[in-house]
């Protein structure tokens, strides 16, 4: 069993990390360590911003990128 989070995981090779995802400047973020595609649901039409941070096992952010997009209104 590998320690995925915490100081002990810093010594694991290859390095293990996770991402923090913040949607529309929310005061909280969610964490994903699956390595799968990020899927966001339930967003209202309009402009959105998603901050994606690559973090080490102790949650120290290594790098980040912000993606902005406009979700069009449904044509129903």
Structural summary, described in words:
The protein is mainly beta. The protein has one domain: Immunoglobulin-like. The protein is 0% helix and 39% strand. It has strands at 18-23, 30-32, 46-55, 61-71. It is elongated and about 50 Å long.
Summarize this entry quickly.
The chain is an all-beta fold.
Assembly state:
single chain
* Mean pLDDT over the full residue set: 86
Please tally the helical runs, counting DSSP H or I stretches of 4 or more residues.
0
Count of individual beta strands: 4
Helix content: under 10%
Number of separate structural domains: 1
Round the Cα radius of gyration to an integer and report it: 15 Å
The neighbouring-strand order within the major sheet is: 2-1-3-4
The profile of the biggest β sheet is:
4 strands, antiparallel
Which class do the helix and strand fractions yield? mainly beta
Order of helices and strands: EEEE
Low-pLDDT residue spans:
none
CATH architecture: Sandwich
Net shape:
elongated
Q: Please report the first level of CATH classification, the CATH class.
A: Mainly Beta
- Measured by DSSP, the beta-strand proportion falls in 35-45%
């Amino acid at each position: 069993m590998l320690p995925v989070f915490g100081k002990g995981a810093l010594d694991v090779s290859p390095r293990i990390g996770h991402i923090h995802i913040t949607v529309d400047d929310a005061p909280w973020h969610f964490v994903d360590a699956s390595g799968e595609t990020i899927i966001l649901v339930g967003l209202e039409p309009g402009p959105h911003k998603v901050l994606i941070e690559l973090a080490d096992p102790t949650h120290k952010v290594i790098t980040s990128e912000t993606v902005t997009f406009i979700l069009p209104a449904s044509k129903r």
